[in-house]
Amino acid sequence: MATDPIIELIARQSMARLDEMEAELERIAQRSAFELDLVRAAKTLKRDGRDQRVDVVVRDGSGSVGIVEVKSSRGRSGNGRSNKSGPIRRILESDPDRFWKAGEISAKLAEQGIELSRDATRVTMNRMGNELEKRHDGAFRLARRQGSFDQPSANGGDPAAEDRETGLEAGTRQGVG
Fold first, then answer.
1. How are beta strands 140-142 and 132-134 bridged, if at all?
2. Do 109 and 83 touch, CB atoms closer than 8 A?
3. Domain CATH number, residue 160
4. What is the domain count for the chain?
5. pTM > 0.70: yes or no
6. Which of 3, 11, 29, 134 would be 175's cystine partner, CB 3.0–4.6 Å?
7. Does residue 176 lie within any of the structural domains?
8. DSSP 69-134
9. Cβ–Cβ contacts within 10 Å for residue 166, how many?
10. 45, 71, 97 - which closes a domain
11. For 83-125, what is each residue's pLDDT tens digit?
12. What is the spatial distance between Cα 27 and Cα 57, in angstroms, rounded to a whole number?
């Protein structure tokens, strides 16, 4: 029976050298299997989303097997704060003329399954900057766009009169105090 010429070439090595080659190839195979497990775990995390836990089988050089739990870090970017301005903006858009208190927005968010305290809601709304107008009592509404042709002002377009009517500090979009 004919043998493979590559096998015949390898067979010319000493038995000690063949043992060394076999051990080295087993280490390479274990390392490759470990790396393959890591890549598969990363794909699972990426596919299934954040806060997903995956068990990774770890093989060490001695042949023993261990399990390592890996948790996705996806969604924890930057400073770790989640952005709730989108859901808040949608609530404010539902009644754009209304001034909303932070507690009211927090309650509406809770109805949507989004947990955000009254204080955290207030801080988020303060960070939304020029998107919102803030009244002296701390209530917010969406900022009115200056120069909009499709929404004429009830007071003839006088910004100072509008500020007085809504309780905004004159010349700014921030409430007094």
1. antiparallel
2. no
3. 1.10.10
4. 2
5. no
6. 134
7. no
8. EEE--TT--TTS----HHHHHHHHHHSTTS-B-HHHHHHHHHHTT----HHHHHHHHHHTGGGEEE
9. 16
10. 71
11. 788 889 899 999 988 999 999 999 999 998 888 899 999 999 9
12. 16
CB atoms within 10 A of CB 74: 13
Residue 61, domain member (yes or no):
yes
- pLDDT tens-place string over residues 126-154: 888 888 999 889 899 988 865 544 455 55
Q: Which domain holds residue 30?
A: 5-71
Helix (H) or strand (E) holding 53: strand 53-59
52 with 120, same domain: the answer is no
Is 77 part of a structural domain of the chain? no
Query: What's the chain's length in residues?
Result: 177
Query: What letter does residue 171 receive in the DSSP assignment?
Result: T
Angle between helices 85-94 and 102-111 (to 10 degrees): 100
